[in-house]
Design goal:
The chain is an all-beta fold. Helices cover 0% and strands 60% of the residues. The protein contains no helices and twelve strands. The strands form two sheets. Strands 2, 4, 5, 6, 9, 10, 11 and 12 form an eight-stranded mixed beta sheet that branches. The protein has a four-stranded antiparallel beta sheet with strand order 1-3-8-7, with no helix packed on it.
Length: 121
């Protein structure tokens, strides 16, 4: 069994910063990749940023230069540093992970419960 728990969301004014955290726990052999996704009211859930175990990162065009994704392997935790926040960044942010239970077995795709980020103008 494995679970993801997000934290760090809140209310911030435009131009401000927030740092989101997502901690994985349970029976974990290794983590292949983790990512952050967001969903605004009435909108599709979209990818924000992803990071692989090798450290390769990808970002949505809308957040390039403002957001930074990173991972602490020792803590099984992924972070999203969000700077220069804009009202259009307002959404529920979800953590996603591709996790190995053992050397040859993966968990099904798992998601966190989400953390709300609200950016006021």
């Amino acid at each position: 069994q494995v679970q993801l728990v997000e934290s760090g969301g809140g209310l911030v004014q435009a131009g401000g910063s927030l740092r989101l955290s997502c901690a994985a726990s349970g029976s974990i052999f290794s983590i292949n990749a983790m990512g952050w996704y967001r969903q605004a009211p009435g909108k599709q859930r979209d990818v924000v940023a992803t990071i692989t175990r090798s450290g390769r990162t990808n970002y949505a065009d809308s957040v390039k230069g403002r957001f930074t994704i990173s991972m602490d392997n020792a803590k099984n935790t992924v972070y999203l540093q969000m700077n220069s926040l804009k009202p259009e960044d307002t959404a529920v942010y979800y953590c996603n992970a591709d996790i190995n239970r053992s050397l040859f077995m993966k968990y099904p795709e798992v998601w966190g419960q989400g953390t709300l980020v609200t950016v006021s103008s």
